[in-house]
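Weekly sync notes, structure subgroup
Attendees: PM, AL, DS (notes)

Item 1: joint prediction request from the bench team. They want all two components modeled as one assembly rather than separately. Inputs as received:
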Amino acid sequence: LAKTTQPISMDSYEGQEVNITCSHNNIATNDYITWYQQFPSQGPRFIIQGYKTKVTNEVASLFIPADRKSSTLSLPRVSLSDTAVYYCLVGDDNDYKLSFGAGTTVTVRA
Amino acid sequence: DADVTQTPRNRITKTGKRIMLECSQTKGHDRMYWYRQDPGLGLRLIYYSFDVKDINKGEISDGYSVSRQAQAKFSLSLESAIPNQTALYFCATGGNSNQPQHFGDGTRLSIL
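Output from the run, pasted for the record:
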């Protein structure tokens, strides 16, 4: 299971783009990258998943460089409701022991 | 996520009591998990199950046991609760490249 490193916290303002970078230097060939969002007193919620290059959905974009040693979650035009903890996980289908680190606490201010 | 239901949502009990937390899912996923979350920390894996006959310990299984009664049901038991098991407990299903994990809303457990 590849170890990940992400910032503890980030502050932003409404309408701005927020980019959270996750480092995973020892990512393996079969590993994919998944991001989750967690609001207080709720379970984490899947945001986006990717293996390489760029993935975009209605919520976010995920940028993965060619070496795959890092990834960046991009939240366009954030609002107050995007204030949450964001977790980056890296692993393959055999990584059963999925653990969530402390994540990145994103605070969006008016 | 209404597809993963945890009961009870809140529970206060005393040291030494036996407690069972229940989880049911309508996702049809084979994999199910139990996590605990302490204030300001991430989620730590207690137990996981790939199907009814497959149950495995996670990183913090001491003091806990589980039962996979059916594909849709996975319960967590604290045989003799102690105060440091006070935490927020989450059940999840899925967890592979085709099925990202889906979480319940959690059970807030307080042990006095």
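Discussion: Chain B has a mean pLDDT of 92.
Action: AL to compare against the crosslinking data before next sync.
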